[in-house]
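Box 4.2: Ligand-aware structure prediction
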Amino acid sequence: MSVPDCITPIVAYRLWVWDVAGLSSLNGVSWIAGQPLAAECKPPRRGTTACSTKQFPHAAPHTDCRCGVYASKRLESLSMSWPWRSVCVRGETWLWGMVVEHEYGWRAQFAYPKTLHVPKSILPITQEQMRSRLKSLAAYRCDVFVRHNGVDIPIWRKDSGFDSAGADFLTNWCRRWYERSGVLTRGDCLTIRGRGTVVVEHSDDTQVHAALGNGERLLLLRKNVTWNEANRRWESNGSVFKIFEC
Ligand SMILES: [Zn+2]
């Protein structure tokens, strides 16, 4: 295994966790906007095989260690079915400096995001949240997309800033959620404390009829059902009545 010093950056793929502070690795390491992420080798912990070089500390990445900034050679290697996939930003990253090559990816000394693709499932639902969250992504000054109906919609362009088509999409996205948040409709899932999740069969201004997985049908008062924005789901803490069919 060789450790080349790359003058020309490698483009590879990875996932990030996204919050108001920006991007971070799945292990919690922050990727600060505007500055490369430099790999570090952490001290080996007792009972782990994190570093087998016996030469700690050393420059990262080391061929006989696991340190370095990880990225995959192929987008498919991020695994479509991996649960993180639906809750993470995915994209391309630049890798440079010392690089250790493996079968499916690299461990690099330096990295910086190149393009970012945000799944719709983790987009904020209010205009205010959307503004602050997107500001944290725009700070990386790379192309940002949202995937919708199989198409990558540009949200932010590194050369020209916010994209007008993307801005329209996000405005509509927030408006749809705003309009939707007060309307409980047939087919919605509803979590009832202590009973689990039920599926709404009918809802009006006063009552909600719902079904449990075992077919049992329940009646709830509409005033006890609320949209929990943090959990992004309908919830009820109120009384639940069983419906007995005649
Ligand atoms: Zn190391």
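In the box above, the bound molecule is zinc ion. Residues 41, 51, 58, 60, 62, 65, 67 surround zinc ion (CB under 6 Å).
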